[in-house]
Amino acid sequence: MNFIKLYLIIVLLGLCKISLSQDVHWSQFNDNQLFQNPAHAGHFNGDYRFITNYRNQWKSVTIPFSTFSASMDMRKNNFGVGVLFFHDQAGDGKFKTIEAQVNLSYQLNLVKDSSHVLRFGLNAGLNHRQLNWNKLYFDNQYNGYVFDPTLPTNENYQSDSKSNVSIGFGMMHEWKKRDRFKIVSGIAAYNLNQPNQGFYSDVIKRDIRYTSFVKGTFQLNPKWDVVPSIQYVQQGIYRELLIGSSFKYYLIDTPKKYQALYIGGWNRGVDASFLSLGMDYNDLFVGISYDINYSKLVPASRMRGGFEFAARYIIRMFKPKKILHRVCPDFI
């Protein structure tokens, strides 16, 4: 148990740093598990899990930043494996980031009834970045009166793309008293090898991304749960602290049919707040959120941030009941 206490102290220290704004993020961080921590691979009740996320932001300011991810993971006994695909495009130059990751996890039961569980995860990713120089504008293309795209830019491009490999590690702890009373926490570090992402001869290391989170589920009454969560992310000079909660209302909760609604709100440091709505329908979840920006960008954004969508589907394979022995009739 001393190891668990030390682990929780590390998580809380990671959460207690000063928060600054960060542009690239997921608001619905609880619904993009493999991006949050590789130990999440296989951490669900079922056999196969599929998750998609899409985000579109800053449409009111400039060319929208568009982000899409898709993941699939599965579990087998105490092991989990998952793959994640990530695509981001931003700005006039159509700056693209494409990444594919593989995640492996292992579950260690600390007690026989599995009420205390540790999970360890490994991450390996292939990252590709590309910029379309022809979409950018330069001073040399102004002829003194108007912009002329046919004029040469006089820029010497050494490269328009860069690829590298990254590795990461994560760890999680779950304490579960019952299905509607549990606490999950985790820490993770991505890009541990700090690969070179520079387009030129200069070496520009990709900063390590540290993530800490704590999430709880607590039953209020037979129909309502409160689901608070907090996440802290640090990458280089960037900081991001998200804190908030959702409330879950059970419409139907029977062994053969299950439906529930979610409504919640979170705050992201001095940058923005967002509201979220979601619904469980048996093994399908869909969620939508909207960011309300109140940073120094308000004169341009007019407090408009961006929409984000999430969907999750879990497949449960039919498992025939094991029969230890059969009672044969007398006539056999």
Describe the structure.
The structure is a single chain. This protein is mainly β and 332 residues long. It has a single domain, classed as Porin. The chain is 7% helix and 52% strand. The chain is built from three helices and 14 strands. It has helices at 2-15, 33-36, 298-301; strands at 48-57, 65-76, 79-90, 95-109, 116-130, 161-178, 181-190, 209-219, 224-235, 238-253, 258-268, 272-281, 284-293, 304-315. It starts with a helix and ends in a 17-residue tail after the last strand. Mean pLDDT is 83; it is low at 1-23.
> What would the average pLDDT be, to the nearest integer?
83
CATH topology: Porin
Number of distinct beta strands: 14
Query: Are there runs of 5+ residues with pLDDT below 50, and where?
Result: 1-23
User: Please, how many domains?
Assistant: 1
CATH architecture: Beta Barrel
Structural class: mainly beta
| Proportion in β-strands | over 45%
What share of residues is helical? under 10%
Gap between N and C termini, in Å?
56 Å
Please give the order of strands in the largest beta sheet.
Answer: 1-2-3-4-5-6-7-8-9-10-11-12-13-14
CATH superfamily: monomeric porin ompg
Give the C-level CATH assignment: Mainly Beta
Shape: elongated
Radius of gyration: 23 Å
SSE order in H/E notation? HHEEEEEEEEEEEEEHE
